[in-house]
Amino acid sequence: MTKVTRIGILTVSDRASAGVYQDISGKAIIDTLSDYLSSAWEPVYRLVPDEARQIEQALEHLVDEEDCCLVVTTGGTGPAERDITPEATEAVCDRMMPGFGELMRAESLKYVPTAILSRQTAGLRGSSLIINLPGKPRAIRQCLDAVFPAVPYCIDLMGGPYLECNPAVIEAFRPAS
Amino acid sequence: MTKVTRIGILTVSDRASAGVYQDISGKAIIDTLSDYLSSAWEPVYRLVPDEARQIEQALEHLVDEEDCCLVVTTGGTGPAERDITPEATEAVCDRMMPGFGELMRAESLKYVPTAILSRQTAGLRGSSLIINLPGKPRAIRQCLDAVFPAVPYCIDLMGGPYLECNPAVIEAFRPAS
Amino acid sequence: MTKVTRIGILTVSDRASAGVYQDISGKAIIDTLSDYLSSAWEPVYRLVPDEARQIEQALEHLVDEEDCCLVVTTGGTGPAERDITPEATEAVCDRMMPGFGELMRAESLKYVPTAILSRQTAGLRGSSLIINLPGKPRAIRQCLDAVFPAVPYCIDLMGGPYLECNPAVIEAFRPAS
Fold it and tell me: Which residue of B has its CA nearest to C149?
C-alpha cells in the first residue's frame, strides 16, 4: 500500500478560530495546492488562535503525528501585537530556510510597499518543510506562485514523497544531476 | 489634550559622542523625517558611543520612557570591530522585521556593491518600531526613501499614532481593507 | 618580513572526505580566487565531513591558528538531513552578515528557482570573514562573482590585509572616503 502524500494547512487566526468569520485563507491554500499538484495528496487542516503554544503544538502534531511532508501556515506574520507565527515556526524548526521569506517579500513588493512588514519565514522540522504565508488570499497565491517551483525538489532532498505538478499551472523545477 | 507623536533618533558613534566631529547623520535623519511628515511630531535625540549596553539602554529609554512609536538609529552597522548596533537592536526587540534590512540592502546595492556589508536590521519592541540606518547621510536618505512608505501602516497595525506624509515627497501606503 | 595573505578553503562533504569522489568544489574556489586576486595570497585547504563539531573546529582553526582573513566554505547548505554548514558557521561567528546570503540567493535565482533552498550565510569571527558557498562549481562562481567585489573593503574595515583584484576579471569596490 502506497502512503498518500499529506500536506498540513494551518490557519492562525483569533477571529476565525472563535467563529467570528470563516477561514477563507486556509481554503485558498487548499484550492491553490489542488490546482498545482497532479500527484495524489490529501490536506490535513488545523485552525488555531494566535497563541504561541497552540501554534507550536499544531505544527508539531502535523509533522510528527500526521506525517505531513509540507506544512503551510497562513496568518500571524505581521507586526500586530498578536502576530507570532514566525516565532512559533522558528521554535519548532531545527534549521531555517531564509530564502523563502526573502523571495516572498521581494515578490509581494511588486504589488505593495508594505510587503516588508511581513515577517514570514520557513524552516525544516525533521524531514518536513514548514512555510509561512500571509493572511490575505491574494497574497497567498502570489507567494506560493513564487516559491512552489522549488518545493518538490526540497522534499526530494529530504527523502519525502515525489510531488508532481500540473505544468499548465506551475513548473516543479528539479535540476539535472 | 492630544499626545504629540514622538520619534527617537539615535546616533551611534564613538567619535561623534566624543566630540571629535559633529553628528551630521542624526541631523540628516531629522531633516528627512521633517521633509516626509505632514502630521505633527517631535524628535527625541540621543547620541551614544559604540557600546552594547549604552545602545541598548538608549533604545529602551526611547521606547519605554520617551514613548517613541518609531526609533531610527544611524551608525554601527558595518563589519568593523566596534560595529554592534544590529546586535544591540536585536537584544532589545521582541520580534524582528527582516524585510527592512533586505530591502535597504537591495536598494543600496543599486549604488554600491559594498551594500551587502551593512548588517542593518529592524525590529519591534512592545508597540514601537526600531530601524537601523547606515551612517552615511546619502545612504540614510536612500534607505529611508525605500522603507518609509510602509512605516505609517506598520505603526497603525501596532496601535500607534496616525502618521501622515507629504505626498509630494513620499507616499504612505495603507492597503484598502 | 611581510605576512602573506592567507585564505581558508573548507570543503564540507561526507563523500569527498571519505574518498568516494574528488573534491572539485574546493579546487573551483581556489581557481576562482587565483583568477580574481592580483595581490599575493596562499590557500589553506581543509576537507571535513558534514559533522557539526568538525566543521566548527575547522573554521576555528582556519581563523584562530592559520590566521586566515577570509574563509570560504563549500557544501552542506541545502535542506538535506546532513546539511548543517550554515548552523556550524553561525555557531563560530560573533556577528552575522545577512547581506551575503541574500545577494547570493538573489543571484542564483536568475538561473534556478531552487536557489531559495540554499541556506548559505556569512559572518564574522574576530577580524575574519566566513562565507558559505554552495557545493556545485558553477554556482560557486556565480555566487563569488556577485559578492566578491565587496570582500576586499570588508577586510579593510576589519583591519586585515589589503587585497587587490585583477580588474579585467573582477572589480574590488572601495568607496571614496
Answer: B113
The full set of domains in chain B, from first to last, is 5-157 (3.40.980.10)
Average pLDDT over residues C82-97: 98
The CA-CA-CA angle for residues C115, C118, C119, to 5°, reads 145
pLDDT attached to residue A177: 66
How many Å from the N-terminal Cα to the C-terminal Cα in chain A? Answer: 30
**Considering Cα of A45, then A47, then A52, then A53, what sign does the dihedral take?**
negative
Query: Average model confidence (pLDDT) for chain B?
Result: 96
Beta strands in A49-152 (DSSP E): 70-74, 95-96, 122-125, 128-133
Q: What is the C-alpha to C-alpha distance for residues B46 and B62, in angstroms, rounded to an integer?
A: 9
Measured at the CA of B110, the angle between CA B109 and CA B112, to 5 degrees, comes to 55
Quickly list H helices, A8-97.
Answer: 14-17, 24-36, 52-60, 85-92
| Mean pLDDT of all residues in A54-70 | 98
pLDDT digit string (tens) for C35-74?
999 999 999 999 999 999 999 999 999 999 999 999 999 9
Interchain contact B84–C (C-beta under 8 A): yes
Measured between beta carbons, which residues in chain A are less than 8 angstroms from residue C113?
149-150, 173
Strands lying side by side in the sheet with C95-96: C41-48, C5-12, C70-74, C128-133, C122-125, C95-96
- State pLDDT tens for residues C123-173: 999 999 999 999 999 999 999 999 999 999 999 999 999 999 999 999 999
For residue C177, list chain B residues with Cβ-Cβ distance below 8 A: none
* Nearest-CB residue to C99 (from B84, B87, B105): B105
Residue of A nearest to C108 (CA): A99
Task: Identify all chain B residues contacting A87, using CB atoms and an 8 Å cutoff.
Answer: 95
* B103: enclosing H helix or E strand: helix B98-108
Chains that touch A (3 or more CB pairs under 8 A): B, C
Which of the four pLDDT bands, split at 50, 70 and 90, describes residue C177? low
pTM of the model: 0.97
